[in-house]
Amino acid sequence: MKIEVFRRIALVLVLVAACTLPAQAVTRKSPPKNKPLAILLSLVSPGMGQMYEGDIGTGLALWTASSALSFAFFLTIGDIDLKSAWSPTIRYQLKPALTTSQLYWAGGFAVCYGILYAYNLIDAATFDPDSSPVSLNFGTNSVSVNYSVQW
């Protein structure tokens, strides 16, 4: 019963993070960043390369989604002793055998994480802050928001 609740929470976090990916505003032109370093940061932790390049919203969404998928995957394939979760040592043990349902859940989480990881690397390598669909322009007494959609 508890695992189903955690799976649903993880799924909701992934969906919320996915919905916030395109909602990124760039307020100023930033100096060019080091692309190889951004890709390296994204290899280490999904979303870090985007945050380094100034795409904070996408970076946080990717980091949240990858964390939720990782947590849900490891919760599905193992047992966590939640009573000792606040002690200095957390007890985690792999399940000796997985049911068919658990295999499908774990496989689904792994596939989603792989897709998210690939998107993360491609986005870190191709991000251009000057081509953001949302731009904010601050005047002396006004703020204008431009949003462009390309088909």
Short description:
It is built from 5 helices and 5 strands. The protein is mainly α and 151 residues long.
Explain what this protein looks like in three dimensions.
The chain has 151 residues and is mainly alpha-helical. It has one domain (2-147). The chain has five helices and five strands, in the order H-E-H-H-H-E-E-H-E-E. The chain has helices spanning 2-20, 35-44, 48-53, 56-77, 100-126; strands at residues 25-26, 78-80, 92-94, 134-138, 143-147. The chain has a three-stranded mixed sheet with strand order 1-4-5, with no helix packed on it. The protein has a two-stranded antiparallel sheet with strand order 2-3. A hairpin with a 4-residue loop joins strand 4 (134-138) and strand 5. The termini are far apart. The relative contact order is 0.17. Residues 24-28 have low confidence and may be disordered.
Question: Largest beta sheet: what is the strand line-up?
Answer: 1-4-5
Q: Number of folding domains?
A: 1
For the termini, the CA-CA separation is: 44 Å
Radius of gyration: 19 Å
Mean pLDDT rating: 76
Mind sketching the topology for me?
Blueprint: H1 2-20, E1 25-26, H2 35-44, H3 48-53, H4 56-77, E2 78-80, E3 92-94, H5 100-126, E4 134-138, E5 143-147
Parallel strand pairs: 1-4
Antiparallel strand pairs: 2-3, 4-5
Pick out its properties.
single chain; three-stranded mixed sheet; mainly alpha; 5 helices; two-stranded antiparallel ribbon; 151 residues; elongated
